[in-house]
TrEMBL record:
Protein name: serine-type D-Ala-D-Ala carboxypeptidase
Main location: membrane
Short name of any one Pfam family annotated for the protein: PASTA
Subcellular location: Membrane
Family: Belongs to the transpeptidase family.
Pathway: Cell wall biogenesis; peptidoglycan biosynthesis
EC category: hydrolase
Domain of life per record: Bacteria
Lineage of the organism: Bacteria, Bacillati, Bacillota, Bacilli, Bacillales
PANTHER family for this protein: PENICILLIN-BINDING PROTEIN 2B, PEPTIDOGLYCAN D,D-TRANSPEPTIDASE
Residue ranges crossing the lipid bilayer per the database entry: 12-30
This protein's record includes keyword Nucleotide-binding: no
Entry keyword set: Membrane, Transmembrane, Transmembrane helix
């Protein structure tokens, strides 16, 4: 190659290298000036790579009863995970990742109650796919504090825990259909039924977060540019339910389920002057902490319409009185009633009492008397207008999910007749109770409600407060009073269907029994036969002259003994719950009591020493639980002048608190102790306290952690 060619090639290569150099320098200058590469902001990318960000989980709001006793609350459980990446370990002498899969699987298996091979497979698959960490599915979720402690005691490298909240129901199977259920969706708790669903937006909070910049060793920089956005916790919901009345109801329903094994039970207690629901329950029910095999997801009180039977005669009677066609002394022929040539005859349940008065017809629950009042005295159109005035064609509007209305079956004369005594037409228990508020409230019908107020969880401020709401006035005050007087004779008259069956010690009672036939679902024709194939019910109001409470109970297909009345399971529930609720609410008696009401008034504790206050409590028949050895009182769990039963737990906190023996306590009582002292309570199991990890007599201070194990009374 000649010299000339060599010079040309040199010039060409120098030109190429110069162009490349200029391009690279230009690129570096561009990046330096703009800070971007292919549209990516390098500074932003660097910040992201060295920035840690953590979520601050918002608490879901607590659901309380009317006296601020927690019925549903968040409870912390744990999720186990294993880190597999060797780079997580910086000091070989202190490994922070899983080193020996077989060893880890062998140790974890008995605690997680799973085969070691399943744990080994999870770890092995994670290793093979280069995962940083793995979890263990259902076996590693929702672990109790006790399980976490057991695993931590094994000291397994690479095994860690994260906290996760779940919804906890301290009372187990307690107003379960009313309180409702939740589910986890994308790590968020979402309400799916009951109050949890209806007020999901209120109960759900908004998560916050914390972020800061770090170095490669995960330590904060000197200027970490820390940003904190606080979580906005969900608001608290306070119900109108009363925990004590609800407990009375739950216990009574459970007793009847054991004794009579009915297909269904529904019951509700409502304040007659306000429409507040004080207690509501159904059977079958479920324990929301441990669902198992759920037989009934529906809140039958509001979601399951049925033919109500003779309780509907209350409203037939009220309509007749309002229209001036009620004459209690007028007579009729009982037994059978045929309203027209082409109309099917209807019968009394007893077939024939001969000639009776209309008053006796109501007392005896005569279908013929009710039919003649509605079809002849009122007329079908007028009677229908009253059914609609009592809102039997509308939802009650109660603040709960999944309310269903019944149907007024009224197309043919026979349907217009049978509706008068609760057959054919369907309704829900809540519709009946809502209509009954017009009877107890001087003609003014009230909307039933279950939410008392909503409270801001962070500030304690009341955001909304429910008030009684009149939604109709189907009858006059005079009619309401007359109806109550007639219904009282159903209980007091010797021929009344409630005589000697429904009885409240110290209180008068007005009400109506019901024995509803059950449609034959197999043939879709007619009704079931046999003594047990009915829905037995009672709608009662007390005291009779000016009711404070309304209660409805229905029991479907109980196994009755040959020698007991049909009303036995219903009257057991009603009498027990209604009488004790009246006493508990300190409602004045209007009849001579068989036994004195055993309620004690809590004395004032301020300005009294512990010994002085203990003596005051013992004088009124209460044995208090004294927390600590101090001489001065810091707090008492029940307000002064409150009325309580002798077996109520009265906890007196002294200025030197020590750990009491809580074995046998209900969880709600331990939670009360937690709130009084400021300790943290962690628990496992269900039922009553079986074990406690802080010994009796140990000094307590705010922030101490008490771990308890719960068990059922039989375990």
């Amino acid at each position: 190659m000649n010299q000339k060619s060599t010079n040309v090639m040199s010039i060409i290569w120098m030109t190429i290298f110069s162009i490349i150099f200029l391009i690279l320098v230009g690129r570096f200058l561009f990046i330096q000036v703009t800070g971007e590469v292919q549209g990516v902001d390098l500074q932003k990318l660097a910040d992201e790579k060295r920035t840690n960000q953590y979520t601050i989980n918002a608490d879901r709001g607590t659901i309380y009863d009317r006296n601020n006793i927690p019925l549903v609350q968040d409870h912390v459980v744990y999720r186990i995970y294993a880190i597999l990446d060797e780079n997580h370990t910086t000091n070989p002498l202190q490994p922070k990742h899983v080193k020996n899969i077989d060893d880890v699987a062998t140790k974890l298996a008995p605690v997680l109650e799973v085969e070691a091979s399943e744990i080994k497979e999870v770890l092995k698959n994670g290793k093979e796919t280069d995962k940083f960490q793995v979890e263990f599915g259902k076996y590693g979720n929702e672990l109790s504090q006790q399980k976490k402690d057991e695993i931590e005691a094994l000291d397994i490298p690479g095994i860690y825990f994260s906290e996760e909240p779940i919804r906890f129901y301290p009372n187990g199977m307690f107003a379960s259909h009313t309180l409702g259920l939740t589910k986890k969706e994308n790590e968020e708790i979402i309400g799916i039924s009951g109050v949890e669903s209806f007020y999901d937006d209120v109960l759900t909070g908004k998560d916050g977060y914390i972020s800061y910049q770090r170095d490669k060793f995960n330590y904060k920089l000197l200027n970490p540019k820390e940003v904190i956005t606080e979580a906005d916790n969900g608001d608290h919901v306070v119900l109108t339910l009363d925990q004590k009345i609800q407990t009375l109801l739950e216990d009574s329903l459970t007793e009847v389920m054991k004794e009579y094994e009915p297909e269904r039970i529904s019951a509700v207690v409502v304040h007659a002057k306000t429409g507040e629901v004080l207690a509501m329950s159904n059977r079958p029910s479920f324990n929301p902490n441990n669902l198992g095999n759920v037989e009934n997801w529906y809140n039958d009180v509001i979601s399951t319409p049925f033919e109500p039977g003779s309780t509907m005669k209350i409203f037939t009677l009220a309509a007749a009185i309002e229209e001036g066609v009620w004459n209690p002394d007028e007579t009729l022929q009982s037994g059978t009633y045929k309203a027209g040539t082409n109309i099917t005859a209807i019968n009394d349940w007893r077939r024939n009492w001969g000639t009776i008065t209309y008053l006796e017809g109501i007392q005896r629950s005569s279908n013929v008397a009710a039919a003649k009042l509605a079809y002849e005295k009122l007329g079908p159109e007028k009677f229908l207008s009253y059914l609609k005035a009592f809102d039997f064609d509308k939802k009650t509007g109660i603040d709960l999910s999944n309310e269903v209305i019944g149907k007024i079956q009224y197309n043919y004369p026979i349907e217009q007749i049978t509706t008068a005594f609760g057959q054919g037409t369907t309704t829900t228990p809540m519709q009946l109770v809502k209509a009954a508020t017009a009877i107890t409230n001087n003609g003014k019908m009230l909307k039933p409600y279950i939410i008392k107020e909503i409270i801001d969880a962070d500030t304690g401020e009341t955001l909304t407060k429910s008030e009684p709401e009149v939604v109709g006035e189907p009858i006059s005050s005079e009619t309401a009073q007359e109806t109550l007087k007639v219904l009282e004779t159903v209980i007091t008259s010797k021929v009344g269907t409630g005589y000697n069956r429904y009885k409240l010690d110290g209180y008068s009672l007005a009400g109506k029994t019901g024995t509803a036939q059950i449609p034959n679902s197999e043939t879709n024709k007619g009704y079931l036969t046999g003594r047990n194939n009915y829905v037995f019910s009672f709608l009662g109001m007390a005291p009779a002259n000016d009711p404070e409470l309304i209660m409805y109970v229905s029991v479907k297909q109980p196994n009755l003994k040959d020698d007991e009345p049909d009303s036995a399971p219903v009257s057991f529930i009603f009498n027990n719950v209604m009488e004790n609720s009246m006493r508990y609410l300190n409602i004045d008696t209007d009849q001579e009591k068989l036994e004195p009401v055993k309620l004690a008034t809590i004395p004032e504790w301020r300005n009294a020493t512990v010994d002085e206050y203990k003596a005051l409590l013992e004088e009124v028949g209460i044995q208090p639980i004294i927390i600590g050895n101090g001489k001065n009182i810091v707090r008492v769990n029940v307000d002064a002048n409150a009325k309580v039963t002798a077996n109520e737990k009265i906890i007196v906190l002294t200025d030197q608190p020590t750990m009491p023996n809580v074995k046998g306590w209900a969880l709600r009582d331990v939670i009360t102790l937690q709130e009084m002292i400021g300790i943290e309570v962690k628990w496992s199991g269900e039922g009553y306290v079986k074990k406690q990890d802080i010994k009796e007599g140990t000094e307590l201070k705010s922030g101490d952690i008490l771990t308890i194990e719960l068990a059922s009374p039989t375990s």
